[in-house]
Amino acid sequence: MLKVSNLTKEYPTPAGPLTILSDVSLEFQRGDAAAIMGPSGSGKSTLLYIIGALEPPTSGTVTLDGLNPFSLDEPAQAAFRNDNVGFVFQDHCLLPQCSVIENVLTPTLVSRENKNYTQRAGSLLDQVGLTERLTHRPAELSGGEKQRVAIARALICEPLLLLCDEPTGNLDRHSAENVASILLDL
User: pTM of the predicted model, to two decimals?
Assistant: First the structure.
């Protein structure tokens, strides 16, 4: 399903190219779960951004279900991300002016599918224990609740791939364990 081959990422600097990733290869099948671990600055987030087609590699290939998203033009690449990749970031990235349900539904605004996403959003929010918070704004939620909204939002379009970049990094131990458990269950 996901195949990363000979991936390299370099950034130009005045002193010459700064290599962040060098010759990374990995493969995952549907249903696999994995953690990428390493010290700060070792390229974990960069790898996730490339796998999720947010940032192109310097060299190498990424394919998801046989398709290389970097072979697509920008609009098709954006559609590919929306249809196939769910993201959960360390900082939940919720829109402060939107309610919980509106935040979860945000990715559906550009979806090419004609589905009843409101029902799915309600079901996902129920699964993450936020049924009573549908109309609340992010400022009215705890850190753990915000991350659970972010998880529901990442899953709303039924992506093939869910990428989480330190989703429990800003949470207390109890909330972190709860969010990790929810991610693995879903």
Answer: 0.87
